[in-house]
Amino acid sequence: MYKTAMLTKDLVAASSKPLVLSILAGGESYGYEIIQKVRELSGGHIEWSDGMLYPVLHRLEREGLIKSEWREAETGRERKYYFMSKEGNKALMAERHQWLAVHNTLSKLWQLKPVST
Amino acid sequence: MAGSPQHLIKIMATQTRFDLNAAIENWRNELAAQPQLSSDDHRELEKHLADTMVELHQRGLSEEESFWLARRRIGQPQQLAEEFQKAEPGKIWRERVFWMAIALVGSYVFMTWKDLLETWWNESAWVEAFYLIPLFVLIGSIILIRRNRLPVENPRSIWKLACGLLVVLIATVVTAYFRGRNLPSGDLITAGYNIGLVLSWLGNAVWPAILVLIVLLTQKRNRKTYKSA
């Protein structure tokens, strides 16, 4: 993994919202699992400082886009689960629209087909 | 002898012995030193640390290595605290108000029991059941705590609660004592007194209701409706 392939701080901050919402759209999850998923899906290009995910989650919760609940997992471990609200689904649609607009514009400028990286 | 190999081995053995519990306790204290972090935040970060450590340990790292790496991944407590506060500026105050309300309910329950016992001593009346409302509030709170909906895992919060309760209780006992001394004992059965009694029943219902409201409000997040695009 090259250093240049890592996302800049600004981009990490901007993309955290659609990433978290998209993951939660696929079902409820908790902080640790969300980070694992992002790490895995991005192939290591998106590396969050673990603790920084929680302020993001709390902000989204305050905005009413997600909800949370302390619950015991099947393994007996207790975790704070986050799940989508109706508002969250709407927000995800809006985010999706915006990110695809950026993606498509850049793709045209760079004359790329949808990229794999 | 100071330079002998046995001595060195002994030093190494004692110096490398890693106390996981102490290390975690240290880390907890570092978190607790950040006033911006609520007890719920502590709990969430602790669970994260535990999850990370378990995973790293399963991958073959030692207890000590797992701890240090997990700790590093989570980040500096001070930076974290700043980010947490930016995300939810009012949270810490919601928590403080919540504990104040709980302390008030506690004192209220105490006063109620005291009044109830006094009344039943003289004559019993079903309307006195009004006085039990705060008791239900307290029971409700306890149920919430038991279901882990309220963050009281942190021993510091419990200490705060206990101190708050104690102060309010002492104040209550002192005022009740002086009020009881100054109360006139004659002509109680008058119209004026009855109206006052009704008002006081109402007051007894409104007062705990306000407290319940505060407790509920502190639990509810500041909702902001999302405007799409």
What's this model, at a glance?
Chain A has four helices and three strands, in the order H-E-H-H-E-E-H.
Overview of this structure, please?
The complex is a heterodimer of chains A (117) and B (229). Chain A starts with 8 loop residues before the first helix and ends in an 8-residue tail after the last helix. Chain A is 53% helix and 14% strand. Chain A has four helices and three strands, in the order αβααββα. Chain A has a single domain, classed as Orthogonal Bundle (Arc Repressor Mutant, subunit A). With 117 residues, chain A is α+β, with helices and mostly antiparallel strands. The model of chain A has no long low-confidence stretch (mean pLDDT 86). A three-stranded antiparallel beta sheet of chain A has the order 1-3-2. Chain B has 229 residues and is mainly α. Chain B has nine helices and no strands. Chain B folds into two domains: 83 residues, no CATH class; 129 residues, no CATH class. The C terminus of chain B is likely disordered. Chains A and B meet through helix 3, strand 3 and helix 4 of A and helix 3 and helix 5 of B.
